[in-house]
Specification:
It contains five helices and no strands. By secondary structure, it is an all-alpha fold. The protein has one domain. Helix 4 runs antiparallel to helix 5. The radius of gyration is 17 Å and the shape is elongated. The mean pLDDT is 88. It holds the Pfam family HlyIII.
Length: 101
């Protein structure tokens, strides 16, 4: 459910790409950073759902390195990637070269 909720935003990305093209939307939405963010979230969700590394090394990751902790680290990294993308989009929109379409 976590992954499906996050991936539902792809609808709006595709709509923007169809209207304005990749180059414009890459600057407006920071698509590269959003892709990195999605990758971190999906990796964390996969590790948690598959119970990796507990499945491979039982009882070795009970305190440190469990899949739940990996999920939380990936969510933090995804948040940092999202913030970097927002800052880049903010700088682009508030630059002198940006024109509303």
């Amino acid at each position: 459910m976590y992954s499906c909720l996050g991936l539902s935003s792809i609808t709006f990305v595709i709509h923007g790409l169809m209207l304005y093209g990749y180059d414009t939307q890459n600057w407006r939405m920071s698509l590269d950073w959003m892709g990195i963010m999605a990758g971190f979230n999906l990796f964390g969700a996969f590790a948690y759902a598959a119970r990796i590394p507990e499945k491979w090394f039982p009882r070795r990751h009970d305190i440190l390195g469990s899949s739940h902790q990996i999920l939380h680290f990936m969510v933090i990294f995804a948040g940092l990637a999202h913030m970097a993308g927002l800052l880049r989009a903010f700088d682009h929109i508030h630059s002198n070269t940006f024109q509303c379409i």
